[in-house]
Specification:
This protein is of the alpha+beta class and 150 residues long. The chain has a single domain (4-116), classed as Gcn5-related N-acetyltransferase (GNAT) (Aminopeptidase, 3-Layer(aba) Sandwich), CATH 3.40.630. 24% of the residues lie in helices and 32% in strands. The protein is built from four helices and seven strands, in the order E-H-H-E-E-E-H-E-H-E-E. The protein has a seven-stranded mixed beta sheet with strand order 1-2-3-4-5-7-6, with helices on both faces. A hairpin with a 2-residue loop joins strand 2 and strand 3 (57-66). It is globular and about 40 Å long. The protein starts with a strand and ends with a strand.
């Protein structure tokens, strides 16, 4: 692994982001990447979307939203999506992306980052716990709400 870095999602990286692969069973826990990309179109002032590069290779994608005026507190600083290519999972790519997101949240004066995910065998819960998120509740649909306090 060379040095990981983040770049903004762009026309030159979006095709590679859409081609990121998943491990068997992960598809049930994640919506198509195009949903996340659409979020930047709907909320261009608050969306934060970055591509993780290992050298020149796209190995991950992270999408978040920063909106200090959001009515629901859990949507003020929220991680919406993180994808790491199946072949690159377990190498620290996801941890790197979350650490960069947390630094961005601190820079913006946020006091926490929230994430909402579906629990289940093979789901993202183990990853989110490993990178510091602590479950604090659930949505009306039964999804887990977790946070990292800054």
């Amino acid at each position: 692994m060379t040095e990981l870095r983040l770049v903004e999602l762009s026309a030159s990286t979006i095709v590679a982001v859409n081609m990121l692969s998943l491990k068997p069973g992960q598809e049930q826990f994640i919506a198509p990447t195009s949903y996340a990309v659409a979020g930047a179109v709907v909320n261009p002032a608050t969306a934060w979307q970055r591509v993780v590069l290992d050298g020149d290779e796209v190995v991950g994608f992270i999408s978040a939203n920063f909106d200090a005026d959001a009515v629901q507190e859990r949507f003020r600083s929220v991680l919406w999506r993180i994808n790491v290519d199946a072949d690159d999972q377990g190498r620290g790519v996801g941890r790197f992306a979350v650490e960069q997101l947390i630094e961005e949240a601190r820079h913006r004066g946020m006091d926490r980052v929230d994430v909402i995910y579906e629990a289940g065998q093979g789901g993202p819960e183990v990853f989110f716990t490993r990178v510091g998120f602590v479950p604090v509740g659930e949505t009306e649909y039964g999804e887990v709400v977790a946070e990292v306090l800054l």
